[in-house]
Design a protein that fits this description.
The structure holds 2 protein chains of 2 kinds. Chain A is α+β, with helices and mostly antiparallel strands. Chain A folds into 3 domains: 331 residues, no CATH class; 230 residues, no CATH class; 197 residues, no CATH class. In chain A, α22 packs across α25. The mean pLDDT of chain A is 84. By secondary structure, chain B is α/β, with parallel strands linked by helices. Chain B has a single domain, classed as 3-Layer(aba) Sandwich (Rossmann fold). Chain B has 7 helices and 10 strands. In chain B, β1 and β2 form a beta hairpin. The model of chain B has no long low-confidence stretch (mean pLDDT 90). Classes of the chains: A alpha+beta, B alpha/beta. At the A-B interface, α1 and α9 of A face α2 and α3 of B.
């Protein structure tokens, strides 16, 4: 019986090629997205599966209420918490702290590379399932200045050489002895650092002032992560109540008078994927992200299944006779139902095959590969199992309505006269499906256009600082004066300035300032820049002459922006000039200039108070203003390179044109192309659905059209007669989707402090595009029929 | 075998009730060959469909082999029908996507007969109807007469006791029609009860009894 069903399924597919193509291609497109999501889900759920006692291991998380009464849940906890737990509570078998205190450049021999360092304890290897490839786990971190490298880091620095026993210098921190290399496993973990350093190093580093004093600071909840392993059989509520005690004591001691902190726990397997937490430790999906991905995949899949449903119902009249015959031959309703379900599952499997091919193309030949696919993903048995299950589900979803409809046909009706068969109410459903598909596509298109407009604006907009004809060169810790002077003499270089970080993304740091007589500090952002920076960036000085040449480490003067003037409650920019202000990390300094507000943090944030300081040791980049554009600057760059190499023979010369670098960092090309792909899929699936419906409607009306033509109707009249009802559907979709798209985009734009207008233009453009595509689809079929010779059709009757 | 008592069948169009069958009383014994005749719209096909259990009467009793069909549930009717009745149509009604062989096999599939057994049964009937050579062709590749032959083969494959034919020769030329009628005669002699609806006096004469219908009533039998 099954063989018979498969036979007829395949013969039908082969016979109705257009129908099969629309169904398989549409389903494959959407399944492609579904498969990617499945791969990502599998990756998301594969984290932290290798630890020895996952169900007795917990991470402590902080719940904080800040001064303004907002609640936060943070993945991090104060560093002293671990010992408070371990010392006082017997049911705690072990604790581990992970303290990612430092990241920067590490040096070994000639190599100088960036690393992320986490400080941790020997118990790391008892609580977690990490293994060492070289070195002894218990001894590797048991004394100050010992470090363990991840496998990749070991290879990056030492290649095939033996790293254990060698040392690594962290800039500003000193030398550390390598005592082990981590084993690389296929398993992923939310804990993923380049270097693990012994926690006992901290005390010395803090004494020497190389790291801020935080390890005994109860009020700093942002820096450390605490993991607790409970003794076998301890209920987790014991840990919860212990944490409650600790936070109560902590509150009484007045350690945090303004804000309050409570603690909660998270079992190790529930960290990734887990809830959205502030200050999370590393990579790993949250439930929110997972839910978003699943819903996108489902929406696209359902849309493609709509097509199948839609077309199958439209086509069911052609299959009605078969149903009638089968019933006369003794088939019961469930036989027929099963047959049509099998047919749609067969289609789903064919679509799966096509989807896997598309996936391979996307993975191997697309620039989006990195955006879509989790790292190191490959086909495995369980993935294939999920794919198959997914196809069956898709087949069922697509096939259930047609199967139900077809299996109810009564033979006595369908065998007698097909024209009498009416699919009551189905037309409404089918039209609704088309409208929904087009609406969804249009919303995505509008959103994509707005997204693109916003990011294009962010990439090219006027931030209030100059990016034209500027080359940024990272100083890499080299002597600033030497290089600045040498480069300044090259022809084509107009001016050289220095900065701690390039504008437009993140400030270099946050400090608190106040007036000498005031009580209250206010937070400000700061950069460190030299005296030529204002001119290079074409910032506007509203008052004062700006900073004089920097004088080493002794901080004497700063510049502030207008917002800072207001925040400090000066009445005017002139009043602020030459005043002394107190910074919490420095001595009092004089305001040497007031700068017109500009978007130093990009358009994402409103303009905040800013202090431009002049500490030379904080400079990280040179900004070289040139007299020419990038295209003509070949010689200049070569000269820069030579000069750099003369001064720093061992260091590679790096440079970026500010304009281009800025554009690339802001334009979000990846996301735009992803949205573009989504929009493309949406409109393709919707168009295929429309195409199918037009084809079958037009076919069903061939006779009517022939009669009308014989009666004298012209091609134009026929085309308009046939197109009208479909165009109406598309118009309805536009009317529904345009406002929704506008509202979604408007809401999305609210996350940017400076934003573009959604604008009528985008809505009109998107609607026109959708309309044009649907006209093309409708026209391609309608003209064919309208232009056909009626005699042929009528004779056949 | 068949007893129809006071069978009424009507349709409601608006407020009017149109009777398709009125007070039909009919007894048919096993082994009979009956022709139902009458002008268009006299209710011939409706009567055949009711006998074939494809349709239900609005009123009246129908006993088939001592089962009260009018009291049976859909599923029980279907079982009864599968076992005892074969249907032949004027328009052949073969499944276009299946070959001759597969078309004939279809009823067996729904009776859960094993594959090997099905093969033997289909081979037998192909042989008997002399269409072995055509078994892998699709209906569109056959002439009308050949298609009807396949239709009859399909109706007979499950060895029904009763064969119902709704104008089986209506789409055929006279020579093909005659062949089909000869076949029916032979089948009837082998013990199959046959009821056919026909317009043609000549074909009707193959039957042992002719029932005339007019406006839903039996005239004289």
């Amino acid at each position: 019986m099954l063989k018979n069903y498969f036979t007829i399924a395949f013969r039908n597919l082969a016979k109705h090629k257009l129908f099969s193509f629309i169904n398989i291609f549409g389903l494959a497109l959407s399944m492609c997205i579904g498969l990617i999501v499945i791969m990502r889900l599998q990756d998301d759920f594969s984290y932290d599966r290798f630890h020895p006692r996952p169900n007795s291991t917990y991470r402590v998380i902080s719940e904080m209420t800040n001064q303004s009464g907002q609640d936060f849940r943070l993945a991090s906890t104060p560093l002293p918490l671990a010992s408070a737990l371990k010392d006082k509570y017997a049911f705690v078998e072990n604790t581990v702290r992970i303290y990612p205190a430092w990241s920067g450049k590490a040096v070994a021999g000639m190599k100088r590379l960036g690393v992320d360092v986490a400080f941790t304890e020997p118990s790391f290897f008892n609580v977690f399932g990490f293994k060492l490839e070289q070195g002894d786990g218990a001894a590797a971190l048991n004394a100050p200045n010992k470090i363990i490298l991840s496998k990749e880091t070991a290879i990056r620095f030492f290649g095939k050489e033996e790293p254990v026993g060698k040392s690594l210098e962290f800039e500003n921190l000193g030398n550390f002895l390598i005592t082990g290399v981590m084993q690389k496993t296929a398993d992923k973990s939310h804990i993923d650092f380049d270097v693990y350093c012994s926690m006992s190093s901290i005390a010395g580093l803090e004494r020497a002032g190389k790291l801020p004093l935080q390890s005994s600071d109860w009020s700093n909840v942002f820096k450390g992560y605490t993991y607790v392993l409970l003794k076998e059989g301890t209920p987790k509520k014991q840990l919860v109540s212990a944490l409650n005690n600790i936070s109560t004591v902590f509150k009484k001691s007045g350690a945090s008078d303004k804000s309050s902190i409570r603690f909660d726990i998270q079992s190790l397997p529930k960290i990734t994927p887990g809830e959205e937490l502030g200050n999370s430790i590393g990579r790993g999906a949250t439930y929110g992200k997972i839910a978003a991905e699943i819903s996108i995949a489902l929406i696209i899949l359902i849309s493609a299944c709509f097509n199948y449903t839609n077309l199958s119902i439209a086509r069911s009249l052609k299959r009605a006779k078969e149903v009638g015959i089968r019933k006369v031959s003794g088939a019961l309703r469930h036989h027929i139902f099963l047959q049509f379900i099998i047919e749609s599952v067969v289609i789903a499997f064919l679509a799966l095959g096509l989807a896997i091919m598309m996936l391979q193309l996307l993975k191997n030949y697309s620039s989006l590969s990195a955006e879509f696919f989790p790292e190191g993903v490959s086909m495995n048995a369980s993935l294939i199992g999920w794919f198959l299950l997914f196809s069956v589900m898709a087949g069922l979803l697509a096939g259930i309505v047609p199967a139900l409809t077809l299996s109810t046909f009564k033979p006595v009706i369908v065998l007698k006269n097909l024209a009498n068969v009416k699919l009551f109410g189905r037309n409404g459903l089918r039209k609704a499906l088309i409208v929904i598909q087009f609406s969804l596509s249009l919303v995505v298109i509008i959103f994509m256009l707005v997204f693109n407009k916003q990011f294009d604006y962010m990439a090219t907009g006027d931030y209030g600082f100059n990016r034209d004809r500027i080359i940024n060169v990272p100083l890499q810790g080299k002597d600033y004066h030497l290089i600045k002077n040498a480069i300044g003499t090259i022809s084509g270089v107009q001016r050289v300035s220095a900065t701690s970080d390039n504008m437009g993304k993140f400030a270099s740091g946050t400090a608190n300032i106040k007036l000498p007589l005031s009580e209250n500090f206010v937070p400000v952002k700061y950069f460190d820049v030299d005296e030529d920076f204002v001119a290079n960036m074409q910032l506007k000085l509203l008052a004062g002459a700006g900073m004089t040449a920097s004088v080493g480490d002794e901080e004497k003067e700063v510049m502030i922006n207008e917002t800072a003037v207001k925040t400090l409650q000066f009445k005017s920019v002139g009043e602020a000039l030459d005043q002394l202000i107190v910074m919490d990390d420095s001595i009092p300094v004089r305001v040497a200039g007031v700068i017109k507000d500009f978007h130093f943090e990009g358009f994402e944030f409103p303009i905040r108070p800013l202090v431009l300081r002049g500490r030379e040791k904080a400079f990280n980049y040179l900004n070289i203003k040139t007299s020419m554009d990038e295209a003509d600057a070949g010689k200049l760059v070569a000269a820069l390179h030579t000069t750099w190499k003369k001064i720093n023979p061992d260091e590679a010369f790096n440079y970026n044109w500010f304009n281009r670098q800025f554009y690339e960092s802001k334009s979000a090309t990846g996301t735009v192309s992803m949205l573009g792909l989504l929009a493309f899929m949406g409109i393709t699936i919707a168009s295929l659905g429309l195409l199918g419906m037009v084809v079958y409607t037009v076919e069903g009306r061939t006779r009517e059209i022939s009669i009308r033509k014989v009666m004298g109707a012209g091609v134009a009249a026929i085309v308009s007669l046939l197109s009208k009802s479909f165009l109406k559907l598309v118009m309805i979709a536009i009317v529904i989707a345009a406002p929704i798209g506008w509202i979604c985009s408007y809401i999305f734009l609210q996350i940017f402090a400076v934003r573009v207008q959604v604008g009528v233009g985008i809505i009109v453009l998107a609607s026109a595009a959708v309309l044009a595509v649907s006209l093309l689809v409708i026209g391609s079929q309608v003209f064919r029929v309208a232009a056909a010779n009626p005699a042929g059709n009528l004779r056949a009757e | 075998m068949i007893q129809l008592r006071k069978i009424f069948k009507w349709v409601n169009t608006g407020s009017n009730r149109t009777f398709l069958l009125k007070d039909i009383n009919l007894d048919i014994k096993e082994g009979e060959f009956i022709s139902i005749m009458g002008p268009s719209g006299s209710g011939k096909s409706t009567l055949l469909n009711i006998i074939g259990m494809l349709d239900e009467a609005n009123e009246g009793e129908y006993n088939f082999l001592h089962e009260a069909v009018h009291k049976l549930k859909e599923r029980e009717k279907s079982t009864l029908y599968k076992q005892y009745i074969g249907f032949v149509f004027q328009a052949y009604h073969l499944i276009d996507e299946l070959t001759v062989y597969e078309n004939i096999e279809t009823p067996l599939i729904y009776q859960n007969i094993k594959s090997a057994e099905r093969k033997a049964m289909v081979a037998d009937i192909l042989d008997r109807f002399n269409i072995v050579g055509k078994k892998d062709l699709f209906p569109a590749q056959l002439s009308g007469g050949q298609q009807q032959l396949v239709g009859i083969a399909r109706a007979l494959i499950a060895k029904p006791k009763l064969l119902l034919a709704d104008e089986p020769t209506g789409n055929l030329n006279s020579k093909q029609g005659e062949e089909i009628m000869e076949l029916f005669k032979v089948l009837n002699e082998e013990g199959v009860t046959i009821i056919q609806v026909t317009h043609s006096e000549k074909n009707a004469s193959y039957g042992k009894r002719i029932i005339h219908l007019l406006d839903g009533r039996i005239q004289n039998s």
